[in-house]
Design goal:
The complex is a heterodimer of chains A (380) and B (294).
Chain A: H1 5-14, E1 22-25, H2 28-38, E2 42-46, E3 59-62, H3 65-75, E4 79-80, E5 83-84, E6 88-92, E7 98-107, E8 112-118, H4 125-131, E9 136-141, H5 149-158, H6 163-182, E10 185-195, E11 201-203, E12 207-210, H7 222-226, H8 232-239, E13 243-246, E14 251-255, H9 258-270, E15 277-280, H10 287-298, E16 305-312, H11 317-330, E17 337-343, H12 346-353, E18 361-363, H13 367-379
Parallel strand pairs in A: 14-16, 16-17, 17-18
Antiparallel strand pairs in A: 1-6, 2-3, 2-6, 4-5, 7-8, 7-10, 8-9, 10-11, 10-12, 13-15
Helix pairs in contact in A: 2-3, 5-6, 10-11, 11-12
Chain B: E1 10-14, H1 19-31, E2 34-39, E3 47-48, E4 51-54, H2 57-64, E5 68-71, H3 75-87, E6 92-95, H4 102-115, E7 120-122, E8 128-131, E9 135-138, E10 150-155, H5 158-170, E11 174-180, H6 191-200, E12 206-212, H7 217-228, E13 233-238, H8 262-271, E14 275-277, H9 280-292
Helix pairs in contact in B: 3-4, 5-9, 6-7, 7-8
Classes of the chains: A alpha+beta (380), B alpha/beta (294).
The structure holds coenzyme A.
Coenzyme A (COA) sits between chains B (14-15, 17-21, 39-41, 43, 72-75, 77, 80-81, 96-99, 125-127, 139, 158) and A (283-284, 314).
Amino acid sequence: MDLFEYQGKQYFSRFGIAVSPGDIADTVDQAVEVADRVGYPVVVKAQVKVGGRGKAGGVKLAQDADEVRLHAGNILGLDIKGHVVHRVWIERSSEIAKEYYASFTLDRPNKVHLGMLSAQGGVEIEVVAEKNPDAIAFLSIDPVRGLDLATARRWVDEAELDQPAREQAAELLVKLYDCYTTGDCDLAEINPLILTPDGNVHALDAKVTLDENASFRHPEWEEFRATETEDPREKMAKEKGLNYIGLDGTVGIIANGAGLAMSTLDVVNQVGGTAANFLDIGGGANADVMASAMEVINSDPKVKVIFVNIFGGITLVDEVAKGVLEALGRVSISSPVVLRLDGTNAVEGREILAPHLSDKLMMEPTMLDAARRAVAFANA
Amino acid sequence: MSIFVDENTKVIVQGLTGGQGRFHGLRNRDYGTKVVGGVTPGKGGTDVDGVPVFNSVKEAVEATGATASFVVVPPKFATAAILEAAEGGITFIVCITEGIPAHDEAITYNRLVEEFPGVRLLGPNCPGIISPGKCNIGITSGDIALAGGPVGIVSRSGTLTYQALHELSQKGIGQTTCVGIGGDPVPGTNFIDCLRAFQDDPETKAVMMIGEIGGSEEERAAEWIKLNMTKPIVSYIAGVTAPPGRKMGHAGAIISGSKGTAQAKMEALAEAGVHVCNNPTEAGEKMVEIVKAL
Ligand SMILES: CC(C)(COP(=O)(O)OP(=O)(O)OC[C@H]1O[C@@H](n2cnc3c(N)ncnc32)[C@H](O)[C@@H]1OP(=O)(O)O)[C@@H](O)C(=O)NCCC(=O)NCCS
C-alpha cells in the first residue's frame, strides 16, 4: 500500500524523524486556517500518489493567506497524470542549503536490505543513478544485524554529505531504518532530505510503501486504508477478499493464483481477445469467495463473457463448482460462462456442474480451448 | 533420480492438526510419502489419522528420524516454525504459507544462511515439491504428475506449476522432480539452485522453467544457464500482457518501468539458449519435440 506524502510524514514522525510542521486541508478555507496556524511562508502541496507534482503545478509557495487561497484553489481539483487532487498538505516553508536523498528497500537478488544515500537529492534518483552513479553511496544491510549508528556515520562520510549535516543525518538514517523495518515498509524514501542554513537536517518529502502482509501487526494502518481511492470494481472486490485489477477489455477472467491469472490474460490475448480484468481468487478459496468473484465480474458492463480458469491445488475444484452454482442462483449472470477445471477434486467439481451445462455455461478440457471459446463469444 | 527428496525422505508436518495441514498432510501420506509425524505445540501425544503428533520439532525428529518438514502454519507463526525446524535438526523445509511479512522472510532467510548453512528452505508461498511416485511434500495434487522422468520442472508460480505438470503428463512425458519455488520477495530456494541440481541429476534430461514478471531472478538464471547448463530448457514467463505499474497478487509480480518485464526476461533467456514459449501449452509441445529427439 502506497501512502500519501502527508501520511508518510505522519508515519515518519512516529519514529522520531524530523519533518516540517504542517497539516492537511480538503477545502480552500481549511487551507487558510492551517496556514495561519503553522505560520507563513508556507508550501501548498497536492496529495496524489504520483511523481512530478511540482512540474504539474501541484506544489506552490505562499507568502500570505491570499496566496494560500489562490494556490489551494488552483491545486484542489487539479488533474495530475490522471490523479485528481482532493487534499493538500500545507507546511511551513523551509530554507534549503542542501538537498540529499535517502532510502531503504529490499535488495531482492541478494536477499538483504539496501540503503541508498546521495548528496545529490531533489532530483529523480533514477536520473542520478544513470548519469552519475558514483554520487550514490550504496549500503548492504544484513537484516539480522540491522543498522547501527557507527555504520551510519561511516555511510554519511562515504556519501560526502556536508560536514554540518553528517551527525544529524546519521541519526536520522538509523531512525529511518527503524521505520522501514519495525514499520514494515517495502520502501521508505526521503527525497529531498534537506540541510537548512541554520544546520538542521529534516525530511522535506516522504515516499512510503507498506507491506500489506504485515497488516496483522499494524492496526494503526486502518486510517491509511480508509483514504485509498480505487476503481469502484476494485473496491468491491477488495471487500470480498479478492485480488482484482480492472482493465479495459471484454473477457472477464477468474483464476486461482497470480501466475495462472496472468497466464490467462496472456492466452486470451494470444487468441485475439482482450481481458476486462485480472482476478485471482487466492489460495484455498471457498464457494462463497468464488460466487463473489462471479458477481464482481458480472457487475462490469464491458464484460461479454466470463472465463473461469481453475487449477486446484489448495483451492478445491468442487468448492469452485459450488460457488459457480451459488452465483448463478444468487444473481442473474448476464454473460455466458466458459470454464476450465483441473487439479485437486476436479472430478468432483466437473460432476457437480455437469447437469447444469448449457449454452450459457460451458466446460472446455484445456486452457487454450476455453480461451478460444470465450474469445469467440467476446468478439461475436 | 530426483532432486532434494526421494522415496526414503521422512517428513513431519508442522501444523498437521490444522485445517489445511490435515488435508494436505494426509494426501501427501496417501500418495506414498513417508509422513512420519506432525507437530503442533500443545497437541503432543494425539494423532491425526494414525500419524503421531508431537509438541516440538525436536521431539518429533528424535522419535521419527525425519529430515524434511512441511510447514503449514499461518503467516504470524510461520517463520518461527521454520526456525524451529532448522534448530530441531530438519535439513529440508517446505513452507507453503502465503502472506508472511517481507521483513520476517528476510530475517529468517539470513538466519538460516548464517546459523544453519546445511538447511534448505523451499518457499514460503510455494506449492512444494513432488518427485512423482516417490515423494510429495506440499499442496500439489499428486494425480497430475507422471513418474519416470526425464523432465525436471522449476516454477515461480503456484498454479502454473500444476499447469506445467499437467501439460507434460497429458502428453505422456514424465517428470523427475517438480519444484515450486514460490513468488515471494525472499525465496529460500531460487531458480539457480534448482537448475544446478537438475544439471547434476543424471536422470533429468531436460528442464521446464516457468517464470513470471517482476524481480530479476529469471535474468540471473539466464546468466547462470549461459555458463553452466548443458541440458535443454524450455521456458514460459507469465505476464506478457500485464499492464505496467500494477501489482498482480504476488509480491513478486510487479513491474515498474522496463526492468522485470516479461519481454526483458524472455530476451535474456532466449539469449542464453533457452527455448522461450508464449504460453504453457506451447511450452509443453516444445518439450515433446525435445524429449522425442533425445
Ligand atoms: C498455512 C495455511 C494453509 C494455514 O491455514 P489453515 O490450515 O486454515 O490454518 P489453521 O488455523 O486451521 O491451522 C494452523 C495450525 O497450525 C498450528 N500452529 C501454529 N503455530 C505453529 C507452530 N509454530 N508449529 C506447528 N504448528 C503450529 C495451529 O495451532 C493450527 O493447528 P490447530 O488448528 O490444531 O490449533 C494458511 O495460512 C495459508 O497460508 N494459506 C494459503 C496457502 C497458499 O495458497 N500458498 C501458496 C501456494 S502456491
